[in-house]
Design goal:
- This protein has helices at residues 9-34, 39-78, 91-104, 198-212, and strands at 83-90, 114-122, 125-130, 136-142, 146-155, 164-172, 179-183, 186-189, 192-195, 215-217.
- With 223 residues, it is of the alpha+beta class.
- The strands form 3 sheets. A 4-stranded antiparallel beta sheet has the order 1-2-3-4, with helices on both faces.
- Helix 1 (9-34) packs antiparallel against helix 2 (39-78).
- The radius of gyration is 21 Å and the shape is elongated.
- It starts with 8 loop residues before the first helix and ends in a 6-residue tail after the last strand.
- Mean pLDDT is 80; it is low at 1-12.
Length: 223
Amino acid sequence: MGNNGRRRGGAIGVVVLVGYLVLRFGFLAYREHEEGMSTEGIVLSLLGFAALAFVIVELVNLGYHAHTRRREQALAARHPGAHLVPVLLSRDLGKQVAWTAGALGLPQTATPRRGYATLVADGNGIGLYSGGATPTLLLGIPRAALVSVASGDAKAVGRYAFGRVDAIRVLAGDPNAPVSFDVPAYRVVFGFPKHLRGEDLDQVVRTIASAVGVSVATQPPLR
């Protein structure tokens, strides 16, 4: 079900980031060398800049993840036994959600252009939530309207992420011509979100399908 071999966005993002850091720190080293700083001083200075940048990013991520945990705790209490999946929001997903809601005649709350959210799946259907201790329902699809779930693909989400990534595809409406949206799932690695892909993503798709009680589409139709 996965889209293996076609996901180069993350690698490109890493190359761009590393290239930027090399140029940035190289310029600082050159400037400090011109000002008479010793090699040891330059190395310590660069290490200090790198450590400070890492600490700042980690503190920001800790805040985001704490917000996510509060949301998940509230959703777990509100939907006992439901399967919760951390997902990433984007402007592209917002457009898909708005289109799906309009096609199905469902109420919808404006989707943030970027951020973290939670997909909730149980016998009542699938819901997409943002917010913290008081979750906001962005879109709720009742079980009766769901057709299937599948592995799809979406634009990579993140400042240094490019290309396409594997994603959860939710199909609903007319079984012969369903509408769908693709939402990327993630896990946290050293404080940073990492897109799920391949078998990891496929397993999440199967779990969601089981929680809702629908089939898994191995070859999902295009929108």
